[in-house]
Amino acid sequence: MNHKRYLALSTYFRTIFGHRVQKIPLDANSSCPNRDGSLSRHGCTFCNQRGSGTGLAEQGLTLEMQYAAWRDKYRRSMPTARFMAYLQSFSNTYGPVKRLEKILLALQDLPDLVGLAIGTRPDCLDEDKLRLIASMPWPQTWLDLGLQSAHERTLQRIQRGHDADCFAHWTTQAARYGLKVCAHVITGLPGETLADFKQTIAFVNCLPVSGIKIHNLFICQGSAMEQQWRNSSFTLLERDETIAWTVQGLALLRPDIVIHRLNADPSGDELVAPQWARDKRALLRDIEALLQRTNTWQGQALGYPLSPHFSP
Ligand code: SF4
């Protein structure tokens, strides 16, 4: 068996809890200021109207019903697993603090739940919300915060609607409340080079970030980026370039940062291009193979040795 060359979330959870922890995606019918007109009506250029959502809330399924359905499904193959609820769709801390409180209270008594991850934007946080989230009883509470790039010109080009300083500020504040921040970044954003991506990793390293998702850029159906890509205003990275960027990014990443994902998770009907992004497992397998072949590991380029903590 090849040993892991990075600190995978599954390894981290096994170390903390002693057993498998499975994330359950939940749709809280949230919105986003970059879509509802408060900042913009266009959204980030890589995102579409679904906002990474399952659409289950719109179908009338409460958070409790969604959780129960996923839990029953996973229980069949993983009888001893515990679960982490992941509020994934749109920006879940957007709106009044009372709304967030209602969502969190609905989750509080769910069975076998050991943690919560809240997907949101850094500009949708404030002190009251951080205090509220930090008061929740789970042993692990994560904030999944979109950064995407540390470069202002890129953030403007993808119509992100906030700057990197905003991410840095609210990451620092969240850490003061004991919350764990998982930064989301993307390889191959329009106009970015490998050097730009490495600078984004260096930016993350300097902040109290506890986790990261490195997503490969894909074209989402109905996004503004789809039109730009069809007009040839930029080109996508090739598969082998994506793998090489990810491996080099990992080599530059602090070894204590937990790797939540190394690939994007496009739903089948949303993926326009590249077609290779459809096979997420194969992409991850080949990232791990390149790490092995080139004897590279997380933090290596910063001078850290290959950590025994990377393998369970
Ligand atoms: S990516 Fe997130 S922040 Fe951007 S428009 Fe979509 S839901 Fe809003």
Structural summary, described in words:
- It is built from ten helices and nine strands.
- The strands form two sheets. Strands 1-2-3-4-5-6-8 form a seven-stranded parallel beta sheet, with helices on both faces. Strands 7-9 form a two-stranded antiparallel ribbon.
- The chain has a single domain, classed as TIM Barrel, CATH 3.20.20.70.
- It is α/β, with parallel strands linked by helices.
- Helix 9 (239-251) packs across helix 10.
- The structure holds iron/sulfur cluster.
- Residues 32, 34-35, 43-44, 47, 51, 90-91, 121, 146 line the site of iron/sulfur cluster (SF4).
In order across it, which strands form the biggest sheet?
A: 1-2-3-4-5-6-8
Q: What's the CATH topology label? A: TIM Barrel
Small molecules held by this entry: iron/sulfur cluster
| Annotated CATH architecture | Alpha-Beta Barrel
Alpha-carbon Rg, integer = 19 Å
- Annotation, overall tally of beta strands: 9
Helices and strands, in order, run as HEHEHEHEHHEHEEHHEEH
Spans of 5+ residues with little confidence (pLDDT < 50)?
none
Helical fraction equals 25-40%
Name of the CATH superfamily: Aldolase class I
Biggest sheet architecture = 7 strands, parallel
Counted by DSSP, the helix tally is 10
Cα separation of the termini? 12 Å
Give the helices and strands, then pairings:
Elements: H1 9-17, E1 21-26, H2 63-77, E2 82-87, H3 97-108, E3 113-120, H4 127-134, E4 140-148, H5 152-157, H6 164-176, E5 180-187, H7 194-205, E6 211-216, E7 219-220, H8 224-230, H9 239-251, E8 258-261, E9 271-273, H10 280-293
The protein binds iron/sulfur cluster (SF4).
